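Exercise 7. Predict the structure of Protein phosphatase from Eleusine coracana subsp. coracana.
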Amino acid sequence: MATMDKLEQIQQTLSKIDPRVPDALRAALHIGYRSSPVPAPLAIFAASVLPPPAAADPDDDEAVVPGELDDVSLAQQQHGEEEEAEPSEPALGIRYGSCYLPLHDDDAHFVHAESGAFGVADGVGGYARLGVDAGAFARGLMANALAEAGNPVRPHALLQAAHERTAASRASGASTAVILSVAGRTLEWAYIGDSSFAVLRGGRVVCRSKPQQHFFNAPFRLSADPQFCDDVVTAARTGRMAAREGDVVVVGTDGLFDNVTGEQLERVVRMGARLGFSAKNMADVIAGVAFEASKRTLVGKPDDITVVVAFLVQPDL
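Solution. The predicted structure, encoded as tokens:
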């Protein structure tokens, strides 16, 4: 269900790609080079593997400018309806990779490749102060989502089933969660709280979720105990969009999205695509960037970091 990665493993992954990649990313994302110029050879390499995103096609209803779109594609904004793929087009599958860098060890994730379903959950750390396992509910949600995943998957129904089973087990704590699935050529999602996702197409963010919060640092969450948490699955945000072969879906807990901006994520994905990263390579690199950013004075937010990357592909025949 979930694997725990160490920074040494990420470094091994990077060493198999190109030893210049970590420094090129630091230069491109302005991590570590704020007070000194970027060495010229490194700047040239970074520019060569970070081409600008493809220009938007004015005739493409799904072309958007980078940024947060609050759970909708541009086609939905323009036409006020959910966009569906043509039924004659072949179904898409996923190639995936994940990376988990624990700090408090309250995150969890799952991938059910056969049904094209995947998700992450983030246990609410405040429960640790009550002397309970703050990650137990998150782990229960993801374990039960994996157990309940069938074919096809409807994310909201799967989140509901996983919550019911986890609550019935009286697992401690509370958790945010996001579940996505690819069915045919449609990407569908359901999420509660600030576990989030972004969909990138041609190196550009075309859809990004918007966190649910009661107030600052108080995200919506699910729990077994309504006395401490009265949020319910019916409050989850849901949506869908037409998917395309080549889309990259990045899913993460707030340890990722609190530390990496949409523009930075676009740069990492463009570099990864240019260098032929696998989904696992890309998950490792994104997690590594978030980890470095989390250590920055004042603006960084140290936390557990979970990243799941899914490439939408034509299944092998």
